[in-house]
Amino acid sequence: MAEFLTDIKTLRERARQEIDKGPITEAYGADVTRVIQVCNEALATEIVCTLRYKRHYYTATGIHAEAVAGEFLQHAAEEQQHADQLAERIVQLGGEPDFAPDTLTTRSHAEYDDSRDLVAMIKEDLVAERIAIASYTEIVQWLGDGDPTTKRVFERILEQEEEHADDLRGMLERLPATEKR
């Protein structure tokens, strides 16, 4: 049987030290300030994506708009869940989630889009998902073993972003060629 790296008595003593840090213990291996900053950038990304999908849901028009708009609404709800998960993690790490609307788009990895054409909406949403996939993949790799909990949060979000990208690609493939121009 493998031994713990730290004996039980020492673990107990350390747990009582700096109790105000909550889950951040001596074993935490990342730069908590930078992790909070990265999480806040991802939070801004998720909020912008939620807003973009909501706008697309309400403004989608055309013969195929109803089915596509339903996907937009579902994706908006899932992006909002991602934002909530990130805000919760930021608080757990002792930070403050940044919901400031005046700097939201400058902190976001993805851009807001106000396209009026259904195909353009789908393409812009797909671009935004691809940006999220690329940046969240980098974040997961950067976190490594330094913060396994935040890493898992990003891995779960990343999995759903990949599903969104696949859904959007499928929507584009199913549209008649006349609408794809």
> What kind of assembly state do the chains in view correspond to?
single chain
The helix-and-strand class reads mainly alpha
Give the overall shape, derived from the CA principal axes: elongated
Instruction: Tell me the β content.
Output: under 5%
- Unreliable runs: none
User: What's the number of helices?
Assistant: 6
Rounded Rg: 20 Å
Q: What is the second-level CATH architecture? A: Up-down Bundle
Cα separation of the termini:
64 Å
β-strand number: 0
Largest sheet: none
Mean pLDDT: 92
CATH class group: Mainly Alpha
> Would you tell me which CATH topology applies?
Ferritin
CATH superfamily: Ferritin, core subunit, four-helix bundle
Portion of residues in helices? 55-70%
When the domains are counted, the total is 1
SSE succession: HHHHHH
Protein traits:
elongated, 0% strand, mainly alpha, iron, 181 residues, Ferritin, heme binding, ferroxidase activity
Overview in brief:
The protein is mainly α. The chain is 67% helix and 0% strand. It has a single domain (29-174), classed as Ferritin, core subunit, four-helix bundle (Ferritin).
What does this structure look like?
It holds the Pfam family Ferritin. Keywords: Iron, Iron storage, Metal-binding. One of its GO terms (biological process) is intracellular iron ion homeostasis. GO terms for molecular function: ferric iron binding; ferroxidase activity; heme binding. Its cofactor is heme b. There is one protein chain. By secondary structure, the chain is mainly α. It has a single domain, classed as Up-down Bundle (Ferritin). Helix content is 67%, strand content 0%. It has six helices and no strands. α2 runs antiparallel to α5. The chain is elongated. The model has no long low-confidence stretch (mean pLDDT 92).
